[in-house]
Amino acid sequence: MKKHNFYAGPSILSQYTIDKTIEGIRDFAGSGLSVLEISHRSKEFIACMNETIALVKELLDVPSGYQVIFLGGGASLQFAMVPMNLMNSKSAYLNTGEWANKALKEAKLYGEVTEVASSKESNYNYIPKNYVVPSDADYFHVTTNNTIFGTSLKSDPDVPVPLVADMSSDIFSRPVDVSKYSLIYAGAQKNLGPAGVTVVIIKESVLGRVNRAIPTMLDYRTHIKAESMFNTPPVFAVYAAQQTLVWLKGLGGVKAMHKKNTEKARMLYDEIDRNKLFVPTIKDEEDRSIMNICFVMADGYKELEKPFSEFAKSRGIVGIEGHRSVGGFRASTYNALPVESITALIDAMKEFESKN
Ligand SMILES: *Cc1c(COP(=O)(O)O)cnc(C)c1O
Question: Which of 3, 27, 88, 320 is the most buried (most CB within 10 A)?
Answer without folding.
Answer: 320
